[in-house]
Amino acid sequence: MVCALAIAGSISSTMAITKDEDASMQKSPPSVSSVPFGQLDDGREVSLYRLVNANGMEMAVTPYGGTIVSLKVPDDEGNLDDIVLGFDHLEDYLAPAYQRANPYFGALIGRYGNRIAGASFSIDGKTYRLPANDGDNHLHGGTQGFDRRLWQAQAFEEEHAVGLLLTLESPDGDQGYPGTLRAQVRYTLTDDNALDIRYEASTTATTPVNLTQHSYFNLDGEGSGDILAHRLMINASGFTPVDDALIPLGDVRSLDNSPLDFRTPVAIGSRIDEDDQQLLRGKGYDHNFVIDRGEAAAEELVLAARVEAPRSGRVMEVYTSEPGIQFYSGNFLDGSLTGKSGVPYQQRSGFALETQHYPDSPNQPDFPSTLLTPEETYLSHTRYVFSSVPQ
Ligand code: GLA
After folding, report:
1. What pLDDT does 23 receive?
2. Which of 328, 336, 355 to mutate to test the pocket of ligand 1 (most atoms within 8 A of CB)?
3. pTM surpassing 0.90?
4. Is the Cβ–Cβ distance between 85 and 350 less than 8 Å?
5. What is residue 97's predicted lDDT score, i.e. its pLDDT?
6. Contact 312 CB / ligand 1 (< 6 Å)
7. At the top level of CATH, which class does the domain 109-141+208-388 belong to?
8. What residue ranges of the chain have pLDDT lower than 70?
9. pLDDT at 98
10. Over the range 158-184, which residues count as b (16 or more CB within 10 Å of their CB) and which as e?
11. Nearest protein Cα to ligand 1, atom 12
């Protein structure tokens, strides 16, 4: 039985499961291995880690941006398909412009997931200016956000799981944010087909923090067409309506009688073209939903969303400790990018469900605070659980 060691640096570049063992894949213990993925301009080597669980479900992650490059998940008959959009080569992830060349495929987002209006905020009367990389506003941590950093990586194995621990030190003043921020993200692939993500951070000066994961999913397989027939449930009775630039207006609006109401599962495409001001502003769905957390404690996982694919029957459930989730229906994809399958990613060929605090919280006194003080530890926990229903 071949089983790769879990210590980063000494991981063999040989695949952990050999051909002969493919047949007995169901019974193989979880494993982790790594191969070279390329080099940054400054010469730093970048690897690609391959994590496999006992069911053969596998995930490839690169420490560049903490990016999930592929996620192969079984359907009801055990067929594996790669269900996240992305590229085969590191160079494609390095492409500069954000919306068109690499729209954050699979990346970790920091220091602040989503938008900050006017690319600035104030703490105790002092104003901090950030890069404006989305019109006048700041998006996903700036031009050199955490999606553009080479994280330190350490692989690990547990009895029924395998994972990768990523760490990053963001210096004081990084992208305009105060304080040195030490961030840690722990990806764990469990034998019950869950991808568990734990985020942790500490700071030397008070600063906003809102970390998230920006995978685009197509549960029938990336490159298999649009996601409009996926049936979505979002456990939210309110959302934060936005202006034309997708900046929250400041209130939480009820979803009663709205085409954004997903409390009852419905196909993503069934109302997406309705003449609704919020859908028109988002060019589809690109909104923060306020999760119905009931009496759940802040650190408790609550079901935020469930998605079922029309052809494969794959199901993804998203559980989170966060108060919000951004549902983005891939509206800015326009066919100009070709991904792993060799098929251009047309509009709405993937969707993102980004667990988070609300957008623009640093400028919105009524939203839950995103400020982290040096006395506190930032903790956030999200779990994507995969299963399938018979077709
Ligand atoms: C987020 C935003 C979208 C878009 C994508 C990246 O999900 O909400 O508006 O910017 O990132 O293309």
Report:
1. 41
2. 328
3. yes
4. yes
5. 55
6. no
7. mainly beta
8. 1-27, 97-100
9. 57
10. eeebbbbbbbbebeeebbbbbbbbebb
11. 103
